[in-house]
Amino acid sequence: MKKWTKYLLLLILPLMTLVSLAGTSAHAATAIPDISEWQGKLTDKQVSGLKSQVAFVINRRQYGIGHVDRYASHNTALYTKYGIPFGEYDFATFSSPARAKAEAKTFYQRANPNAQFYVLDYEALHTSRGQSNAAVNAWYNEMHHLTNKKLVFYSYQSFATSYANQARKKFDAQWIANYSKKPTIQTDLWQFSNHKYFPALKKHVDASSILNSKKPLNWWIGGTPNASANN
């Protein structure tokens, strides 16, 4: 190898490494974790480190009316402190349309006002099958009455189509979990893993990525709702 070629390589290789690392960092920052009390009471160090590793966070506020997530207020305050955009979700336990309305109202009252959007996490059936769509619809209507922020429906694909296939279409976006492959129904946000490692947290957590280019990052963390999913 000629001497000048060696020198050229010495100059190029560090630049290639930097480009590669930048690409890796950018890719990592597109991940979107959802966090609940199971991840614990986060520290300033964890959250400040998390900022460069995520696009935004989705935080659980409550497990139905009866249980407030133990660290929701603490953790969302840290997201605000370190400038990490976030949404909040209600793990639904309502047993009727009337209870769904009450649950939505309680969720809204408890949520951090800095949340960019609100999520109905609907993955466990507590109503009769015949009331399921009506209950989801009641939750949506109450939240729509209370706020003009985006409303997002979350579930596993099979559960969504079995128990809320009509009501879910009213929401501004669909967040669908399917770990083996991409969902085959309308999906704006795809929960692709329940075991992704985030170095700042030193934990494996659920993780999602944006799937619909018509609802890019700025749709989730700013602005006003577009048309609902309608699919």
UniProtKB/TrEMBL annotation:
GO terms for biological process: carbohydrate catabolic process; cell wall macromolecule catabolic process; peptidoglycan catabolic process. GO terms for molecular function: lysozyme activity. Keywords: Hydrolase, Signal. Residues 1-28 form the signal peptide. Belongs to the glycosyl hydrolase 25 family. PANTHER family: GLYCOSYL HYDROLASE FAMILY 25, LYSOZYME. This is Glycoside hydrolase family 25. It comes from Secundilactobacillus silagei JCM 19001. The lineage of its organism: Bacteria, Bacillati, Bacillota, Bacilli, Lactobacillales.
